[in-house]
Specification:
TVP38/TMEM64 family membrane protein; single chain; mainly alpha; 85% helix; 0% strand
Length: 242
Amino acid sequence: MPRRTKLIVAVVVLAVLVAAAFVLPVPSPAHLRDWAAGAGPATALLFLAAYSLLTVAPVPRTVFNLAAGLLLGPVAGVAVALTATGISGLLGFGLARLLGRDLVSRHLRRKAVRTVDERLAGGGVLAVTSLRLIPVVPFAPLSYCCGILSVRPLPYLAGTVLGSLPGTVAVVVLGDALTGGTPPALLACYLGFALVGALGMIKVLRGAAYGSRTEQPATLDAVRGEGVRARFHQEVQAVSEE
């Protein structure tokens, strides 16, 4: 397809999408919450299944955590998201151990591979938790890595849930806030930010007041010095004229 034709197609598709955004009715977050509540427990079960299966592949969990807060609320959203995180982590771990363990065992004689395997397996829950807390470490690839190495399943599961807890709670609460309500967790964060800002402003104001007090005597001394010099010149001039 020629470049000009591709450009025209892209512009037409973009125009159609923009027009659809203005014409088609888009449900608000509050309406989506009401729809999910009207569907009953089926919503949570379907969401749990989709979250658990789709994130076995390298699909970002952030989207599902936002959706959990938006559809299910903060309490149920966190519970479902963490449960799905554990199931997804175990599925990725099990698939990697079933399919890739034999491939890695051939390379365990190499010092670098053996060192990584020993450190990760020996670290247990703490090692897995620490890695899960690092945002730049992808969820699914880490599950595969732990599966093909010698990490035991129970420490891996505990570390996965513990390490994923803070980020999951934060994103689910953010998704819940999209419905228009202000959850207590966000209120606590806002209060903390306001307190830090107030303390910073007090420090700035005190510093400015202290600076003005220290500069005032120096200014007065300069004015007095100018007055003394002026009187001295006047007296010298009067003596010379006499």
